[in-house]
Specification:
Elements (H helix, E strand, L loop, with lengths): L1 E6 L4 E8 L3 E9 L1 H5 L6 H22 L15 E7 L3 H18 L3 E5 H7 L12 E6 L4 E8 L2 E7 L5 H11 L6 H9 L23 H13 L1 H6 L3 H27 L4 E5 L6 H13 L3 E3 L3 H4 L4 H12 L25
Parallel strand pairs: 1-4, 4-5, 6-9, 9-10
Antiparallel strand pairs: 1-2, 2-3, 6-7, 7-8
Helix pairs in contact: 2-3, 4-12, 5-6, 5-7, 6-9, 9-10
Length: 348
């Protein structure tokens, strides 16, 4: 069974075709990163316009890369269902993808399956580790989300904790801007950190041990104060920026890893899955795997191309949702798209 996935929740226009939920036939992504870099963040109106310009090309390329033609999509045995990100995300971006998915669903007479973007980051790992099955613990860490989720089964979740303020990726972006680095902040801070001393600046780890929530606004503010109070030192020694990056990155990673490993031990989870754009950070990945081994916990990390937003993960979730008899008629989608969509069980 082949599912076609569409992802337009933020600034990537993506379409993919997946076989049986785990084999990638095609996975095409058009990024808007360069366009938004000059504004040091995603501009919603520009993102929507770019999706409109790119979606047809990305769709056609994904179909041809999978070895099919647009005419082939009329056949029942080529694509069985169309899955699309229904939220959370930017409303304009979501609406563009949702409308396009509705259109081709009607045109090719295929059932439409709404997918939560966060579910994509949870289950995208199955594309590279097909043997993995729930239950497991999942950490979603991106520019817009930081959530710790107990995945009991496909479509059955318990959100243990989430960020109270800034998401981890958002904190990276804001600190990069403060240090006059480029956008997006994650990759450039990681690069600068390689030449720095992570022990140079003592940033407090925001653990919030009374629950499983996260908070990064205090850490971000600590960096603001440090840069303000040490402006002369930074101006005199440009390499000190590397130390700040390394120290900040270490504080974020320690917070994410320590809390996730503790949650895995608390809930007796032997498998931990991390996903989302921040997961592409090599230091985060290495630290997670190392701490996991020390605690006899297997940590699964997607390859870089599946960490960031893509449609393969949406198509994969769509397959499992469709197989669970949760493909709906378009007329029932009155609440979608939903920019503030929360994780919810499929039987709700």
């Amino acid at each position: 069974m082949i599912t076609l996935g569409i992802e337009t929740s933020c600034d990537e226009t993506a379409v993919a075709l997946i076989e049986n939920g785990r084999k990638i036939l095609s996975n095409v992504v058009s990024s808007q990163q360069k366009m938004h870099a000059q504004y040091f963040g995603v501009v919603p109106e520009l993102a929507s316009r770019a999706h409109l310009e790119n979606i047809n090309y990305v769709f056609e390329k994904a179909v041809t890369d999978a070895g099919f033609t647009l005419v082939d999509l009329h056949k029942k045995d080529v694509v069985s269902a169309i899955s699309v990100t229904a939220g959370p995300g930017l409303m304009g971006s979501l609406l563009l993808g949702w409308t396009f998915a509705n259109t081709i669903s009607y045109l090719y007479k295929k059932p439409l399956v709404p997918v939560n973007h966060l579910e994509g980051h949870i289950f995208g790992i199955l594309l590279e580790h097909p043997q993995l099955k729930p239950p497991f613990l999942s950490l979603i860490v991106s520019g817009g989300h930081t959530e710790l989720v107990l995945v009991k089964n496909f479509g059955s979740y318990k959100v243990l904790g989430k960020t109270r303020d800034d998401a981890a990726g958002e904190a990276f972006d804001k600190v990069a801007k403060l240090l006059n680095l480029t956008y997006p902040g994650g990759p450039v801070i990681e690069k600068s950190a390689r030449g720095g001393n992570a022990s140079a600046v003592k940033f407090t780890r925001p653990y919030l041990w009374e629950n499983w929530d996260f908070s990064f606004s205090g850490l971000k503010t600590a960096v603001v104060y440090y840069v303000r109070d040490n402006a002369a030192k930074i101006a005199k020694d440009k390499t000190h920026v590397n130390d700040i990056c390394a120290s900040f990155q270490s504080a974020v990673v320690d917070t994410l890893v320590d809390k996730t490993i503790e949650a895995a031990k608390k809930f007796k989870m032997k498998n931990v899955v991390i996903g989302g754009g921040v997961t592409a950070n090599g230091f985060l990945k290495d630290t997670f795997i190392s701490r996991g081994k020390a605690n006899k916990i297997h940590v699964y990390v997607p390859s870089r191309g599946l960490c960031t937003d893509n449609a393969a993960m949406i198509a994969s979730v769509g397959y499992y949702k469709y197989k669970s008899a949760k493909a709906y008629k378009i007329s029932k989608f009155k609440k979608y798209p939903d920019p503030n969509m929360e994780l919810e069980d499929w039987n709700v």
